Amino acid sequence: MSTHRWFDWALLLSLSLAWGFTFVLISVALQSFPPMTLVAIRLVTGALTLYVIMRWQGLRLPNDLAWWRRFATLAAIGNIVPFTLISWGELYISSSLAGILMALMPISVMILAHFFVANERITLRKAAGFVLGLVGVLVLVGAEALTGLGGMAVLAQLAIVAATLCYAVNSIITKRIPAIHVLVAATGTLVAGSVILTPIALWIDQPWQNPVYAGPLASVLVLGVLSTGLATWVYFLIVARRGPSFLSMINYIIPVVAFTAGVWLLGEPAALQKFIALGAIFAGIAIAQTRRRRAVTP
Predict the structure, then answer these.
(1) What are the boundaries of the signal sequence (predicted)?
(2) Cα torsion for 13, 17, 19, 22, to the nearest 10°?
């Protein structure tokens, strides 16, 4: 475990903030951009942002074809497919229901990491923490969101679930790639995703036919710079430092960010069950991340 545990939590919080507002930004951006085009703009803007930072730090993208195959795989599983599925799904389901479904990722990560990542074995303490956190998410979102399950929106719900599985698989793959500077890995992944998706989006969506408004344009640019570019850098850094199971806790923090923003910025009621839910989420995180102290032999 890193000696700078506080820094790991600061990274996780910053990523939670960047991704916590993503659903709102996507909802606004969809007013002008089709889902695939929205994702393509996110990837291109994020890639440009990280490339400038990478070159400023004196780093270069690798010339090895094997690395670009890895970048393409990471981009497809961790960006192109889940970003597109979530953007499309938000056309048909509420953000609260999407929050419930996204909270399934930690369970997937825990199971996958148990088999494919060293020192990520499932323990009773970790399992109890994950379950408690998931219960907190369900209470936070509220039972009324469950009324949207099934019906005409079933495909959108399955799309969000598939996106969570993509994120889980991608976090395992990221942990297992050879050593490389995290900024180079993040930049290369977004560049590969941009090259793959942009021509497809232009061909399928033909976005030039849609009117572009200031609000959606600003939203998609913020998504690209913050929620895609800088957030991808932080994502790789967290996985490298703490592993996929620690990263998966973000799916419990994001609903907290959404709740806080709703109360402070939108004036939404702060019901008692929401505070109870927040307590359950924080307790779940604490239980899952606490490790037994081992005796140290000189």
Answers:
(1) none
(2) 170
